[in-house]
Amino acid sequence: MLSFKLIYDHRYDLNLGDHVFPSQKYRLVYERLLYGKIADSSDFLPPRPAQDEDVLRVHTPEYVRKLKTGSLSHAEIQQLEIPYSRELIEACWLAAGGSILAGQRALQDGWSANIGGGFHHACPDHGEGFCVIHDVAIAIRRLQSETAIERAMVIDTDVHHGNGTAAIFAEDKTVFTLSIHQLHNYPFIKPPSTMDINLPDGVDDEDYLAVLDEHLREAFSDFTPQIIFYVAGADPYREDQLGGLALTMPGLARRDALVMDYARKNKSSLVITLAGGYARRVEDTVAIHVATIVAARDAAAKQAAGN
Ligand SMILES: [Zn+2]
After folding, report:
1. What secondary structure letter does DSSP report for 179?
2. How far is the CA of 188 from the centre of ligand 1 (A)?
3. Phi, psi at residue 45, to the nearest 5°?
4. Are 161 and 235 in contact, with CB atoms under 8 Å apart?
5. CA-to-CA distance for 272 and 88, rounded, in angstroms?
6. Could you tell me which residues come within 8 angstroms of residue 99 by beta carbon, excluding any fewer than 6 positions away?
7. Catalytic residue among 121, 134, 160, 289
8. 9, 120, 198, 261: which has the highest count of C-beta atoms within 10 A?
């Protein structure tokens, strides 16, 4: 049994078939956590869908109306790069509710993970790059609205820049956004985060970890978050089809441990969201996400031991 909760719902799976976005990964991560005896069924909590009021703190009424009534234009659906369906909208509202619940539980237990979410490309008035609505921003705005927190940090290690996060919090000093990503990759327009780490192609474990450590140190000397949303993309992996960095699985696990160390030392709650992962073998993407949960288990144990 874990000392923190995992948020998951079978409806996170969009059943996209052989699409490059392996939405079956959520179910596979869940099964691997359970059958690998990393978690037991009592560690999982089901999310409730976000309320429209929550979504509207981040997204425009016009965009939300189009999503709910199925009236996106052909171009808007193309920009999403996944097919529109009622199930898609249900899954996205659930994932946003999952990140809200994970935020609430992390404030209570120190740690939590949404076995989904991390849809960092969603912008206030449109979705793009497999991201329909921005679950992390929705959760942060909800926690702020119920005065559970004032200050949040988003640490985004997905290989792609967190353009939606940067756009949503551009004018907001209460949310520190950090994105470490491959410069020459999607999205081609990268609005500035509070801190952007633009990596050249092919960066390996050692260079990645050194630069991330240096920037995390600087970020935490400027800002003291009460909660961190960790957008733990699996796509900096060397075998990723949509990424051009060269991290190994052990390197990605060290990345997770590094981010969690900063959370622990700075006494901040931490929420994990999965974000991207498009490895040639879906089992690799699943293994990387599972390793992130294992890293959280180990970090929570260290914290409990007072280290
Ligand atoms: Zn990505």
Report:
1. E
2. 13
3. -120, 140
4. no
5. 22
6. 7, 114, 117, 135, 136, 138, 139, 229, 271, 273
7. 121
8. 120
What's the gap in Å between 232 CA and the centre of ligand 1?
Answer: 9
Q: Provide mean pLDDT across the span 200-209.
A: 98
- Report the candidate in 102, 138, 105, 145 with the shortest Cα–Cα distance to residue 123: 138
Instruction: Specify whether the CB–CB gap between 103 and 152 falls below 8 A.
Output: no
Residue 130 CA to ligand 1 center (angstroms) comes to 9
Element (H, E) at 142: helix 135-145
Tell me how long the chain is.
307
* pLDDT bucket at 17, cuts 50 / 70 / 90: confident
Phi and psi for 250 in degrees, rounded to 5?
-60, -35
**C-alpha 153 chain-centroid distance:** 12
Residue 173's CB is within 10 A of a number of other CB atoms, namely 9
Handedness of CA 105, 111, 115, 119 (dihedral sign): positive
Q: Please, are residues 129 and 204 in contact by the beta-carbon 8 Å criterion?
A: no
Distance (angstroms) between ligand 1 centre and the Cα of 1 equals: 30
Residues flanking ion ligand 1, Cβ below 5 Å = 158, 160, 233, 235, 276
* pLDDT at 306 (0 to 100): 82
How many A from CA of 242 to the centre of ligand 1?
7
For 30-60, b where at least 16 C-beta lie within 10 A, e where not — what string?
bebbbeeebbeeebbbebebbeeebbeebbe
- How many A from CA of 146 to the centre of ligand 1? 30
The stretch 101-127 carries a mean pLDDT of 98
Q: What angle do CA 291, 197, 255 make, to 5 degrees?
A: 20
Predicted local confidence at residue 15, as pLDDT = 79
Check if 121 is active-site: yes
Whether pTM exceeds 0.70: yes
